[in-house]
Write a structure and sequence with these properties.
- The chain is of the alpha/beta class and 656 residues long.
- It folds into four domains: 348 residues, ABC transporter transmembrane region fold; 150 residues, P-loop containing nucleotide triphosphate hydrolases (Rossmann fold, 3-Layer(aba) Sandwich), CATH 3.40.50; 73 residues, Rossmann fold, CATH 3.40.50.300; 36 residues.
- Helices cover 65% and strands 8% of the residues.
- The protein has a six-stranded mixed beta sheet, sandwiched between helices.
- Helix 4 packs antiparallel against helix 6, helix 7 packs parallel to helix 10 and helix 9 packs antiparallel against helix 10.
- The two termini are 57 Å apart.
């Protein structure tokens, strides 16, 4: 966690559960707006403030130029009192001055925006990277319990909210406040206190109405955002499970499910726009009443001879100029109010504590041989249901240890504990005698390679996914890893080669191809310890044999833990552990365990029966396929052959 994020987090925790205000949020964001390590950005911020003040002074001069030009055209005697040289007092000169001042006002305002843009976007970038890094530091439990679609929407809105507060507070709120103070000074100098009272009451009424109406709208906006998040989550979930939807022909059901979420979003969106119309109408009425009153007061002054026609147009110009930022202030209040809510939702994620943390001063893991040892390890995801109950075993350096057992026995939990995705509630895990809970997580995971059952690839190229094992590897090393994983021949057949895109989650590749990419990635990483978590259980028998050959090659010389579903893949393991209901009930070699006639032998016999049945079905299908092909080809056959032929024509055999 960066120092900037730590300071903001500490401020929020000191605030406790109290509802965050705009001031609280700005205080949390201030380290990003005013970064201690960026003198150039501080200079830009100060420069933007300077241009802001100059722009507002010029803005106040514009109505004066308009007034003087009007009085000059009308031939009013007040022209003689204009504080300008005589050659600039003519109607044309004053009109030109009015145009020049408006140009300068626009240039200074846009210059301020351009100067401050780098400050605002740097704050957004630094906050975004802090949040991104923090998400990767959170535990596996957090990510398993969250919906990815909803999480990304919260982060997206939070990022946009930061930009809203940083940019709009600097580019709208502060300039409007400065302009209001200058207007008060102008009215006191050129008119009298009554004008100040009317303008002040107008602005107070305007802001009061805006506040109340916005508070009413906030509940509607919140419900709309919730429905938006729900619809987005359903869409992402459905698209990620595209194949499953197709398998079950559930397109209509998914469409109806998404439409139901969008129907709620539609209704709430309509209410949001209706409430916005009410807000804008009320603001327009309040401001117009104030404008009309001060202009009527000026008309009375013209009749009394205390004001000129130029004063009348000047008041109109000042009020119209004020209306523009005031309109933005209404939007600003709405957007900032929503931004505070969105940022707080993101800050709740930032306030999540990582379940697994490195201890202060934790050393890096030093691996000589790679001996792995579990010592009386107890673990449960939920206190009410124990998963591992006193598991103890040792994997000597360079040996292969297989862990087998029925589903739900706790096999995959062992691999998650080795990677420190979770911490055991009791006992410890050591590598070469070092407690993995006492070393840094980065060094631990650097020494362990993983080939999972379900390989999920990044939506990038084959080369990118292989190189993920060791990012600084040379191209030759990537190609060598691909050759060892027996994926190089496939890559050579693809037009783009290593630059071929694999698609979302690697869906453009077959299961065997994805596994080979995962193996190549692990070979490139070259870890001293290897974990194979049911790496071939999702593959067909032929592909399994090919992948198993590659895995055996990778495991040579490494300490290997094989979590297996198919027992045929672990018959050559140095030791097999049989896990059942969270406990190791048997251990030994394949031959020893069969001789015991216990749980392993029962699993082995059951799997052989299943394999034999599947093989018989496969041979029967092949035989039926050959018979069908002979019949269709015109070979002798009686009534039975004719039936087979007609059956094949109407319904292809499953073997085809």
């Amino acid at each position: 966690m960066s120092d900037t994020l730590s300071a903001a987090t500490a401020a929020r925790r000191a605030r406790g559960a109290a509802q965050a205000t705009l001031a609280d949020t700005v205080r949390d964001l201030w380290p990003y707006i005013w970064p201690a390590d960026r003198a150039d950005l501080k200079a830009r911020a100060l420069g933007a403030v300077g241009l802001l003040l100059i722009a507002k002074l010029v803005t106040m001069a514009v109505p004066y130029a308009f007034k003087w030009a009007t009085d000059a055209i009308a031939g009013d005697k007040a022209v003689a009192d204009i504080p300008l040289p005589w050659f600039l007092v003519g109607p044309i000169a004053l009109t030109v001055a009015y145009g020049v001042l408006r140009i300068l006002m626009a240039l200074f305002t846009q210059g301020r925006d351009a100067l401050f843009a780098a400050v605002a976007m740097n704050a957004v970038r630094r906050m975004a990277i802090d949040v991104f890094v923090h998400l990767h530091q959170l535990s596996l439990r957090f990510h398993l319990e969250r919906k990815t679609g909803g999480l990304t929407r919260i982060l997206e809105r939070g990022r946009n909210a930061i930009e809203t507060i940083v940019r709009m507070s600097m580019l709208t709120a502060v300039p409007t406040a400065v302009e209001f103070l200058l207007i008060v000074g102008v009215f006191l100098y050129s008119f009298d206190w009554r004008y100040v009272v009317v303008v002040s009451l107008t602005i107070v009424a305007y802001m009061w109405f805006t506040t109340k109406a916005t508070q009413w709208r906030m509940a509607i906006r919140k419900s709309m955002n919730d429905s938006d998040t729900d619809a987005n989550t359903k869409a992402i979930d459905s698209l990620l499970n595209y194949e499953t939807v197709k398998y079950f022909g559930a397109e209509r059901r998914e469409g109806a499910r998404y439409d139901k979420a969008m129907e709620r979003y539609e209704k709430l969106s309509a209410r949001t726009y209706t409430s916005l119309a009410v807000l804008n109408a009320g603001q327009a009425v309040i401001f117009t009443i104030g404008l009309t009153i001060v202009m009527a007061m000026c008309v009375q002054g013209i009749r009394a001879g205390t004001n000129t026609v130029g004063d009348f147009v000047m008041i109109n110009a000042i009020m119209i100029q004020l209306s523009q930022p005031l309109n933005f202030m209404g939007m600003l209040y709405r957007e900032v109010k929503q931004a505070v809510v969105d940022i707080e939702a993101m800050f709740k994620i930032l306030d999540q504590h990582p379940e697994i943390r490195d201890r202060p001063g934790a050393p890096d893991l030093k691996v000589a041989g790679g001996a792995v040892r579990f010592e009386d390890v107890h673990f449960s995801y939920d206190p009410a249901r124990a998963i591992l109950k006193g598991v103890s075993f040792e994997a000597p350096a360079g040996h292969t240890i297989a862990i087998v057992g029925p589903s739900g026995a706790g096999k995959s939990t062992i691999s998650r504990l080795m990677f420190r995705f979770y911490e055991p509630q009791q006992g410890r895990i050591t590598i070469d005698g070092q407690d993995i809970g006492a070393v840094t997580q980065g060094s631990l995971r650097d020494k362990i390679g993983m080939v999972p059952q379900d390989t999920v690839l990044f939506n990038d190229t084959i080369g990118y996914n292989i190189r993920y094992g060791r990012w600084d590897a040379a191209d030759a090393e990537v190609e060598e890893a691909a050759a060892l994983a027996q994926i190089d021949r496939f890559i050579k057949t693809v037009p783009e080669g290593y630059g071929a895109q694999v698609g979302e989650r690697g869906l453009k590749l077959s299961g065997g191809e994805k596994q080979r990419v995962a193996i190549a990635r692990t070979i490139l990483k070259a870890p001293p310890i290897l974990v194979l978590d049911e790496a071939t259980s999702a593959l067909d028998s032929f592909t399994e044999r090919e992948i198993q050959t590659a895995l055996d090659r990778v495991a040579q010389g490494r300490t290997t833990l094989v979590i297996a579903h198919r027992l045929s893949t672990v018959v050559n393991a140095d030791q097999i552990l049989v896990l059942d209901k969270g406990q190791i009930v048997e251990r030994g070699t394949h031959t020893e365990l069969l001789a015991q006639g216990g749980v392993y032998a029962a699993l082995w016999n059951r799997q052989r029966e299943v394999d034999a049945a599947q093989e018989a079905i496969r041979r029967a299908e092949e035989a039926e396929g050959k018979s069908v092909r002979v019949t269709v080809g015109g070979a002798p056959g009686g009534r039975e052959g004719a039936k087979r032929g007609s059956g094949a024509a109407g319904r292809p055999a499953s073997g085809d």
